[in-house]
Amino acid sequence: MPGIAIIGLQWGDEGKGKISYLLSKNAKYVVRFQGGANAGHTVVIDDSELRFNMLPAGSASGATPCIASGTVVDLNEVVEEIELLKSIGIRVQPLISKNANIVLPIHKQLDEILEKMRSREAIGTTRRGIGPAYSDKALRIGIRIEELLHHASLINKIELLQNFHKLSLENMDELIKLAEKLRESICDLEIILNDELDNGVKIVFEGAQGTLLDIDQGTYPYVTSSNTTIGAVFTSCGIGPRRISDIVGVMKAYTTRVGAGVFPTELKRDEADMLRERGREYGTTTGRPRRVGWLDIPLLRYSIMVNDIDWIALTKLDVLSGFRKIKICTEYEINGKIVKIAPPNVRMLEKAQPLYVELDGWSRLSEEEWKNIVMKGWDALPENAKAYVETVEKLLNKSIKLISVGAKAGMEVTK
Ligand code: IMP
Ligand code: MG
What we know:
Helix content is 33%, strand content 21%. It contains 13 helices and 20 strands. The two termini are 22 Å apart. Bound molecules: inosinic acid and magnesium ion. The site of magnesium ion (MG) has 5 residues, from loops.
């Protein structure tokens, strides 16, 4: 069995958590390969809503959670989420690569300070210390997980960090206590993953954030500080590209964005409020109301291209119920030219005029009615909902194999 990668195609919050839970059901491992506690992945099983910031959400299925080198690890979150898993009867020891960098309180403080300094140009970060932790990594003064096992050099390294940043915030005792709790998790994850792949074990690689927040391929500077696209799986986990058999793109049936930056199909006022309320579009990590808008095909085409997506999981289709008309942006007009595949370049997108097609909506359905549809499958979907899905497939030239129609696990229609 192969490696499966799950990649967000928009600005995060596409519902990767739920899709990862589904696809991890018969996997042995599920791996977070980038980002840190900025991610907020939710899985709803029966009536309990589980929120993950640091461990892959797919671990709620029982697959062993792994945290790969390319992440920046918030140790407190790891310890808390091990408890969260225990609360649903899953006792696991996560595997954490020795090479992953640690997010320290100093990084969160710096995140805060930088955002204040940016003033009107603030990115709207999650304040989880992500940018500063990755920048210390690039400066080669960041602290790797492995250091937790070597206290003398850890103290020296922290001193260097504090002197460099002219801030001293670290509490060594606290750090050493956390390290003790995670001692057994610290490993050469790269060797384990390659070995297991050789043995034919199924591994899910769970992306965080989305393609448009990628530091290279996103709407820079309004992005996160890691690569969120497919290449990160290989560099972070130390596996070769041929190990991945399925690259699954997750996209929401409309668009959302939290934080600042261009958003060509953004809605304002009443329609925005309606979509936000129906979709419960408030940040998992920060609680901020998300900006919302219609589906943006030119940007999705770009995301699909750079990740070489095999097939799509479409989420939150149910949220569009009750809109009389639903719009889809099929292309942009920029300086009199038609653009079908849009590179997420901020200067260019600021000038983009979205061109829309308008589709007829379908009426609102009760939860019972949705459950019934899920039982019966694709044919039972309202005609106009099917037309919406088929239009998106045609516009993106990709097949949508999985359609999620509610927050709860189990509310999916496969085609
Ligand atoms: P940072 O990753 O905290 O530095 O935030 C940078 C940008 O990415 C901000 O606009 C955040 O709102 C956004 N962001 C970071 N993580 C997520 C996520 O998991 N979902 C959605 N947006 C995110
Ligand atoms: Mg989220």
